[in-house]
Amino acid sequence: MILDGNFTRKQIYEELKIRVDAQLAKGKRPPCLAAILVGEDPASQVYVNNKVRDCEEVGYTSRHIRLTADITEKELLDLLGELNADEAVDGIIVQLPLPAHIEESKVIETIQPGKDVDGFHPINIGRMSKGLSAVLPATPAGIMELLRRYQIPTVGKHCVVIGRSNIVGTPVSILMGRNTEPGNCTVTLCHSHTRDLKAYCLQADILIVAAGKQEFISADMVKPGAVVIDVGMHRVPDASRKTGFRLVGDVQLEDVGQKASAYTPVPGGVGPMTRAMLLMNTWQVYWHKILSEVIS
Ligand code: NAD
User: Fold this and answer.
1) What gap in Å lies between CA 117 and CA 114, rounded to an integer?
2) Residue predicted with more confidence, 46 or 157
3) 169 CB less than 6 Å from ligand 1?
C-alpha cells in the first residue's frame, strides 16, 4: 500500500477550508501566517512561495516578508518582536537556513511559543516530550498524521528511526514512543555512530528513514511486511525532465516497495504532509486563541 501524501494533503486542505469558511460566515477573520525569508536562496524562495500559495488555497491570509541577506540579527529579532505583539498574526515562520551572521537558535527562541507554527521552540519541544499539548514540528507531525489516517497499527510495534536531527529523527522517535494513538511503539533511534545498522533495520516493524543519504536503505535491510517511511529528499540530475532533475529519497523504493506492507513514495509522501502540517499548526494556534478569547 502506498501512503499517499499528496492525496492526504488535499484532504486536509479541504477540511481546513471548511473550517475557515465557517469562521468567515460568522464574521471572523481567517488565520494569518507571517512567513519570513532572509536572502535569496532559490530553494528557500520556492519553499516560502509554496507556503504562501498553500495559505491562499485554504483561505488563510499571509504576510510574505522578504529581507535582504545583510539584515542584522537585531533587526530580525526586533521584527519578530513586532510580529509576536501583532494580534492579527497567528503563526510565524522564519525559513531556514539563515545567513551565517544570524544565530538560528536565537531566532527560534524569539518567536513566541504560541505563534511558533514550525514547532521548533524549546518550549514546544519540551511540552511535546512531556506529552503535553504543543505545536509539533511539521515533518514528524506529518508522519504521525499519515499513519493515523491510513490506520497503520503501531501499538507494541518496534519502530526504528534512522537519523536524530532536531527537526525530524529525534522528535518523531519521541512521538512514536508516546502513549498516544498512533504511538506506543518500542523505539530504537539509530544514527551515524550506530553499529550494524542493517541488524536494527531488519527488526523494524516500522522503519522511519531520515538520514539524508540518497537511496541508502536497500531491500535486504527491510523486514518483509514492514511499514517504511522515507523522509529523505535528494535531487538527481535527469535530462528527460523539464526541471532537469528528479527527486529520490533515502530508500531504494522500487525494491523496498515490493517488500513493505506500506510505504511513502518520494516525491508525494512525507513532503506534502510537511506542508499540510504547517497549515494545521496555524489553524491550531488560531483556534486556541479564539477559544481563550471565548473563555476569558
Ligand atoms: P540531518 O542531516 O540533520 O540529520 C541526518 C541524521 O542522520 C543525523 O542524525 C545522522 O546521525 C544520521 N545519519 C547519517 N548517516 C547515517 C548512517 N549512515 N547511519 C545512520 N544514521 C545516519 O538531516 P534532516 O534534516 O533530519 O533530514 C534528513 C533527510 O530528510 C534529508 O534528506 C532532508 O532533505 C529530508 N527532509 C525532508 C523533509 C520533507 O518534508 N520531506 C523535511 C525535512 C527533511
Assistant:
1) 8
2) 157
3) yes
